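Illustration 12: S-layer homology domain-containing protein.
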Amino acid sequence: MLPNRRPTVRAGLAASLLVVLTACANSSTGNVFKDSLAADSKLRESTGNVGQPGGDGQTATNANRPADFPAEIPIYPESQLQDIVPVASPTPASPTPTGAATNATANPTEKATGQAQWTSGDPSNFVQSFYLQQLQTNGWQLVSQATQDLPATLVARRNDLQITVAIGATATFALPTPSDRPDNASPDTASPAPSSTPIPSSSSTSTVFTIDYAYESGSVASQAVNPNSEAPQPGDSEFVGPVLEGATASGTTSPATSTPVTANPQGFTDLDKAPKELRSYLKDLAQLGVLPLRSSDTKSAAANRSTLFEPNKIITRREYARWLVTANNRIYSDRSGQQVRLGSSGTKPVFQDVPKTNPDFEVIQGLAEAGIIPSPLSGEATVVSFRPDAPLTREVMLLWKLPLDTRQALPAASLDAVKETWGFQDAGKIDPKALRAVLADFQNGDLANIRRALGYTTLFQPKKSVTRAEAAATLWYFGSQGEGLSALELLQSPSGVTASPRPAGP
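Figure caption equivalent — predicted structure in token form:
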């Protein structure tokens, strides 16, 4: 048999090929041959993204949060980063970057400030609801909130960080394309683009929102002023508070001490017009940021930025619903199990006159879904309308508030029982559905909502409209039979959050 020459032939070919490659290593022919054997550059550049969602699938943490952006600031998940103003620490020797949030004063206190802007395909009320929920449940103190008209603004503070969230109206605009960049822009040139994900060249209907933040070390965060923000600032005639104790008109604060920080109820200029018995309740609630910044009455749009609380003005049903949820969730800010969850836009509206486009849809829908207010969901098949702009009556106020006091089903009640306990001469005029709430309120003794808001009376006048001051007084305390929490207790808590329900004094 002839010997197998295949190994010898293969070895010879390999040696010949090696000689050829060595000979042309530095020639153009060799470079062409080398490039033909190299890995695809496109594949090499994309290896870092293997297993990662691309485009719109990127997470907010990876794609939508700037590198130097504070991690504790929540980012709306369904959004795309559009613009960044670099972090800066303004001093008298260095001007503030254009467009960045500026200090309220020209003092040399070092403060890192920054700004970023996002867009989202979701409606503005979705974005607004997200930030209200996130701020209220994650230890932020709401300094001010102006959410009735767009642009809506939320100012919140946590430790030495203060943020201003400005949520603009939904608008149609042209998205930028790579061709918008200068021809000589290098890959290392700073760009506001959050990632290498290409941005399509098209028009998109989106909600634009901006977040300004300001850090200050060694003291309580002072008020940051964004020239483009509509949120009123301390010292401005339009500021509605609260302001930290020791704050000056310019927005600076004294150094932090071991004394718990309390708020100064500045801003509302007409609280002295409220009945004197109710003023302390209003001040405590204003310090917590529970009271609204402006009336929801669209006819008074020109006065929306005023500092008037209008304590003797009649409150509407929608306003009290919003206050009720805000106060409850603030009192129980550290216990999500006690909070009222906002309604989802993905659910069918419970009430015919509160569609998803209503600015208070999430609040009213959430109260109905929790069974706190009567609706078809709670077996009231005939209650198909909420009447958001109708005046709030005394009996309805009690009917809504008591479920959040007792945290259980209201007891059965009779007309005779209400007469014997409260001694109301007009008990027969109370709606049978509200009798249970009126009777349950009596069990709270001196902390009863009726006594706190109305004082001693033998006439309940159940159909009478409620004033804003009276409505606010009922929200000062949540609890039943001495087991509860008040706004004052929350303010006096060193941590600023509730620890656990405990008996409250009169």
